[in-house]
């Protein structure tokens, strides 16, 4: 895992670029966001969260920083129902003819409500740019070490889950856990 190295300047540059992308997605979110827009927003949010977890505790401890982290959590929470509904509706599309029309209308209404909540939290996020980080407070070696530690942790967890799933693919809970670990590792 020695290849996972990042310098403080590179980290700071990447953080700013990822934050800019997140704010762009949040401010540009339409009233009726597509499933791709929601997916991109969630991915950008998780990337910033991972980067923020790698920062020194002293940087993360400020009130502004903690408030921003709570806002990121709120974005994921508000968009999770929307993402679930998008996935459900995409799955049901193959069976549209055999489903009652009221079910699809109800799901569309739920999606509209969830989209309104996501839009509201994204407006707050767009008005609350992430706290600036000072490159002098960042130690590239420590961030690289934290990054390797996280990669090792999630890689080991995925490796431990894999054999039991390969033996019996009906272990849905374990498969879901594996999916989450691999997503975190990625």
Contiguous uncertain segments of 5+ residues: none
* Through-space gap between termini: 14 Å
Assigned CATH architecture of the largest domain: Up-down Bundle
In total, the number of domains comes to: 2
Tell me how many strands there are: 0
The major pleated sheet works out as:
none
CATH level-3 fold name of the largest domain: Four Helix Bundle (Hemerythrin (Met), subunit A)
CATH class of the largest domain: Mainly Alpha
Instruction: Look at the structure and give the mean pLDDT.
Output: 87
| Coarse shape | flat
Per DSSP, the total helix count is 7
Quaternary class: single chain
Provide the gyration radius in Å: 19 Å
What portion of residues is helical?
Answer: over 70%
Strand content: under 5%
Secondary-structure content class: mainly alpha
Reading the helices and strands in chain order gives: HHHHHHH
Which SSEs are present, and which pair or pack?
Layout: H1 8-27, H2 35-54, H3 57-60, H4 63-92, H5 101-126, H6 140-167, H7 172-185
Write up this protein:
The chain contains seven helices and no strands. The two termini are 14 Å apart. The protein is an all-alpha fold. Helix 1 packs antiparallel against helix 2, helix 1 packs across helix 5 and helix 6 runs antiparallel to helix 7. The mean pLDDT is 87. The protein is flat. It has two domains: 131 residues, Four Helix Bundle (Hemerythrin (Met), subunit A) (Up-down Bundle); 47 residues. 76% of the residues lie in helices and 0% in strands.
